[in-house]
Amino acid sequence: MTARREASAPPDLPGYEYVRVLGLGGFADVFLYRQHLPRREVAVKVLLAGSLDDEVRERFQTEANLMAQLSHHPSIVTIHHAAIAADGRPFLVMEYCSRAGLAERYRSERIPVPEVLRIGVRLASAVETAHRAGILHRDIKPANVLTTDFGWPALTDFGIAATTGPAVQTMGMSIPWSPPELLAEHPTGDERSDVYALAATIYSVLAGRTPFELPGGNNSAQQLVARIERSPLPPVGREDVPLQLQAVLDRAMAKHPSRRYSSAMAVARALQEVEAALRLPITPLDLPDEPAVAPGGAAGDEDATRLRGIALPAPGGASDDEDATRARSVVVGRPTLVPPPAPPAPPRPVGVPDGPASRRGARVAAVAGAVVVAAVVGVLVATLGDSAPGGTVAPSDELAAPQTGSVAAPVPAPHSLEGTRAADGSVTFTWQNPDPQDGDRYLWGVLAVTGDPTMALVDEERVTVPADQATGEVCIEVSIVRADRSSSARPVQGCAP
Fold it and tell me: Residues in domain Protein kinase (predicted)?
């Protein structure tokens, strides 16, 4: 067993009083200091004396600048100050998060599903905020999620972050939470790589282990990489984790980036749908510049005709207008379990914060009492039954009237999706309908690394991808479409080599 190294000497910082060691890292140590003016406890991250080469200094400076740019977010650690100590070591003065972080908690306690969902939505909001600023985190994992005094998750350690783009390096990445494309010989990655790592972190918090870790088995780096690249995601293994949440993790951690959620926002929306299905309060999104719904219920952009899985009320009756999944050429209603309205609660005074009383308390209650989920799950495409030649669904801006009355049970996804390649190079996919009903049809399309699939409707549980469209690995997605034009809440996806 490797001996634990001693912490480096804490630097003498004018205006600060050293308290104790908080943590040791490969390039830096973190100490607790007491700042004199304004008087508060802060975490000070100090580079190790032996790590002062130009590359490490540049990483350290990048971390300071990126975290300062993003630290207005309630789930990203705040940077107060950055400078160079008298002994020549650079240091960062950061918000001190006093509670146990996720790395300490997920191995030692069984964190309840409602709390994991709240953590997941808030972290997804933080990641989405970074992406909108053009920043990839590239090392999302439990050790980089601290907990504030008010119980909020706080993402930290942007030391290997980079601006978004097609090229990426893997320096410093943590294998258990890394997606396959970043572990390849020639790594490539984008926002969907952070989506994978975000979901892997949520998985770890639920399961009490890393996603591809075998308790008592061989968990060497080589074995982990092999499982990440080739093995299906194991079930979380908790009886209280709903299948809908497992499905969210499965999709977010798909091997191929094109099969994942396209954004952290979409992950947040999917987790909110799970909260709604479990009749839990909906965790609000913390995002800047969220577009509001225009008067009359129509959004002010092209997202207006897309179905939202849930709609969260905002002051004045406006609601968020972000798509929960990738844009598609056809808009299909995806029903969601919606909790019934709660009885009225006593009115709250205007201006009472909906969150902690610190900078995280800037949220104002949108409505009095419990969160009411907007009844938008019944919106469907009016012309879904009309097909263009060849079975391709004809797009339409005409929407059917929202359904009224009680919310029907969600339409399940097909299962047992399998593909078989024929001698001529074509691939035939088959699947099964777990709850066949009169009038059922199937909406399907071939997935691509870039762009959206062209969707088509078929009557049978079988489709064939021609040889000229089936070069290399072929992946498709399939949804069940009922006679009333409702469809699977989540399509099933599968590939054939």
Answer: 16-278
Alpha-carbon distance of 182 to 48, in angstroms, equals 27
* Partners of residue 364 on adjacent β-strands: 353
The model's pLDDT over 430-465, given as tens digits with 9 standing for 90+, comes to: 999 998 999 999 998 887 654 456 778 899 999 999
271/154 Cα distance (integer angstroms)? 18
CA distance 103 to 154: 12
Q: How far apart are CA 271 and CA 255, in angstroms?
A: 20
Instruction: Return the CATH number of 102-277, one of 3.40.50.1260, 3.40.50.10420, 1.10.3720.10, 1.10.510.10.
Output: 1.10.510.10
- In contact, 148 and 219? CB cutoff 8 Å: no
Contacts of 463 (CB under 8 A, 6+ apart): 428, 429, 442, 444, 456, 476, 478
C-alpha–C-alpha distance, residues 366 and 121, integer Å: 18
Q: Does the annotation mark 238 as catalytic?
A: no
Residue 45 is labelled as binding a ligand: yes
Can you read off the two tokens belonging to residue 73?
A: 């977010």
CATH class of 16-95: alpha beta
Give the pLDDT confidence of 302-361 residue by residue, as tens digits: 343 333 333 333 333 333 333 333 333 333 333 334 444 444 554 444 444 444 444 444
The SS3 assignment for 84 reads strand
Q: What is the DSSP letter of 293?
A: B
Catalytic residue among 105, 118, 138, 334: 138
Q: What angle do CA 94, 95, 96 make, to 5 degrees?
A: 110
CA distances from 297 to 8, 211, 361 (A): 59, 41, 29
Which are the contacts of 409, defined by CB distance < 8 A and separation ≥ 6? none
How far is the CA of 243 from the CAs of 133, 351, 421, in angstroms? 33, 38, 30
Give the gyration radius of the chain's Cα atoms. Answer: 24
In this structure, what token pair is assigned to residue 97?
Answer: 């998060």
Under 8 Å between Cβ of 355 and 363:
yes
